Amino acid sequence: MTTNLLDFDLEGLARFCERLGEKRYRAVQLFRWVHQKGASDFEAMSDLAKSLREKLKAAAHVRAPDVISEHISADGTIKWLFDVGEGNAVESVFIPEVDRGTLCISSQAGCAMGCRFCSTGHQGFSRNLRTGEIIAQLWFAEHFLRKHLQRTERVISNVVLMGMGEPLQNYAELLPALRTMLDDHGYGLSRRRVTVSTVGIVPKMDLLAEQCPVALAVSLHAPNDALRDKLVPLNRKYPLVELLAACERYLAFAPRDFITFEYCMLDGVNDQPEHARELVALLSGHSNRSGWCKLNLIPFNPFPESGLHRTSSEQIVAFASILTDAGIVTTIRKTRGDDIDAACGQLAGDVMDRTRVGERIARQRSVTLIPAAALDQTLEEA
Ligand code: SAH
Ligand code: SF4
Quick one: 72 and 174 in the same domain? Predict the structure, then answer.
């Protein structure tokens, strides 16, 4: 088995080059070939010495997981399903907009967090993705799109970790992937344009702040512990007071001066006016500085096993008004890619029926991907 170079950030690649008996600076050239040019054939890396190319051919490869399917929506949204082996698959969604291109990527096959309203959560946890499998989603999509759109410049300007899985539960593999996204020799994305969405793993939020403070979105979904305990089981471990304190600590490092809270609107569950008022009290009680957070209301994407329903648009707007009237910047997420099941939040993921190994079933549960940065729509626009 040779080494997949997508598993390394630049520092990791430098160490790999040293192990091959090469100077560290060679890693910069190699990293640029792989991530900036999308090259996977060492022979094509013309400015590398022949001896190095030979060593690489013997010891390494550059490979993304196979694409199982690609769906293109009428609105230009593209969804890819990647085969990550043993019956597991993960999805990525590209959302083009006039001024940006956002890629929503997955961090795990399945998820162990078990949130009530999430189809990935209902599926359970299969495994963590490796660094190479996380960055491969960007590597593949960026270079595929450049080729397809005949562009030589960057197509993807924003990345959101809002696909399948809880990114901070897979911190060790996530970190090198984030560093590669930010690296000027990699994708050169600004920290403001890379967003990690978390359900609130407090110690890992602190670690991220210290080691790689990208934009942060926190999945809140309830204004009090009793309700959040039910919707987001992790709340029992890290209740709201601890979660909000971690958000405040994160703010000191954050590339933007606010945290985004995501709130999935569930009919009759967390969407009543009193919930909005409780939310106002919770969020305004937490920091003296106004504007320290933004709220993003997500229309729930129903799936049969959930037994839950989507709040009506009128009610979402009414809920949002209570928040905006209290001075909390609130947006309502617009869904994209509905016709290809790429609209907001969960990912289908597993495509192989594990009871009939080898047979692929396109078990396309409703796919929800939440590219907050790309899809937010202000109330004024709504
Ligand atoms: N695990 C991380 C990131 C992946 S989920 C997290 O929970 O933040 C990305 C977003 O999709 C989260 O805000 C999550 O609450 C939302 N989501 C999950 N299921 C959904 C559904 N059925 N409808 C709408 N949004 C959903
Ligand atoms: Fe996991 Fe996020 Fe789904 Fe919760 S909402 S189960 S943390 S993917």
Answer: yes
CATH no. for residue 364?
A: 3.20.20.70
pLDDT tens for each residue of 265-304: 999 999 999 999 999 999 998 776 778 999 999 999 998 8
Q: Which domain holds residue 15?
A: 3-61
Whether 187 and 128 map to the same domain: the answer is yes
What's the pLDDT at 339? 73
What value does the CA radius of gyration of the chain take, rounded to a whole number of Å?
21
DSSP state of 365: P
pLDDT one-digit tens code per residue, 129-157: 999 999 999 999 999 999 999 998 999 99
Give the start-end residues of each E strand in the chain. Answer: 3-4, 60-61, 66-72, 78-85, 88-96, 101-104, 108-110, 125-128, 158-161, 194-198, 215-219, 259-265, 293-299, 329-333, 376-378
pLDDT value of residue 360:
31
CB contact at 8 A, 320 and 330: yes
**What is the number of domains present in the chain?**
2
Is there an atom of ligand 2 within 6 Å of 118 CB?
Answer: yes
Pocket of ligand 2, candidates 91, 106, 108, 113: which has the most ligand atoms within 8 Å of its Cβ, to mutate? 113
In the predicted model, is pLDDT for residue 367 greater than 60? no
**Nearest alpha carbon to residue 348 among 58, 97, 71:** 71
Tell me the whole-structure pTM to 2 decimals: 0.91
106 with 224, same domain? yes
Pocket of ligand 1 (CB under 6 A): 117-119, 162, 166, 197-199, 219, 262, 264, 298, 300-301, 344-346, 368, 370
